[in-house]
Amino acid sequence: MRRVKVLLSAPAHGFSAAMATHLSGPQMLTANRLKTGDVLYRKGAGWVLTLAEGEVYQTQAAADAALAAANAELARNEFVAPYLFEVREKAGRVVPVKEREIIRAAGPTVHHHTGKQAGQFQATQAQVDANA
């Protein structure tokens, strides 16, 4: 069996800092599951798979505390690259501000009838056939 040594940079050196320094509104914390690559969202002391279930941090202090807690858990090698992103409430739902996070929340962009978005958008048979 081959052993791999993983080296992590300390948070003080910029590892897993917020992607943007100008976040001003409510924020959420995201990462990726190491084994599968699934997009994760922080909820309490754990992680969930959907944006709708994730926790929204209304203050910068709460967001920073969640990021610090996630960074402290990195050595467990269950998830990678936690960072904060900005969200807004729209029509009673939490939605990401940036296009990157909208895409990550929906899942793979290859076909609308596969991935996470399959449960969010019902593809018609004509759409499925057109993408085949």
Short summary:
By secondary structure, this protein is of the alpha+beta class. The chain is 24% helix and 23% strand.
Given the structure, what is the number of helices? 4
Sequence of strands across the biggest β-sheet: 3-2-1-4-5
Strand content: 15-25%
SS-derived structural category:
alpha+beta
Tally of individual domains? 1
Radius of gyration: 17 Å
Say how many strands there are.
5
Mean pLDDT: 80
Poorly predicted parts: 16-20, 121-128
Span between termini: 41 Å
Main pleated-sheet profile? 5 strands, antiparallel
**Anisotropy-based shape:** globular
- Fraction of residues in helices? 10-25%
H and E string: EEEHEEHHH
Structure description:
The chain is an alpha+beta fold. It has one domain. The protein has four helices and five strands. The protein has helices at about 60-70, 100-105, 115-120, 125-130; strands spanning about 25-35, 40-45, 45-50, 80-90, 95. A five-stranded antiparallel sheet has the order 3-2-1-4-5, with helices on both faces. The longest helix is centred in the middle third of the chain and has 13 residues, at about 60-70. The model is unreliable at about 15-20 and about 120-130 (pLDDT under 50).
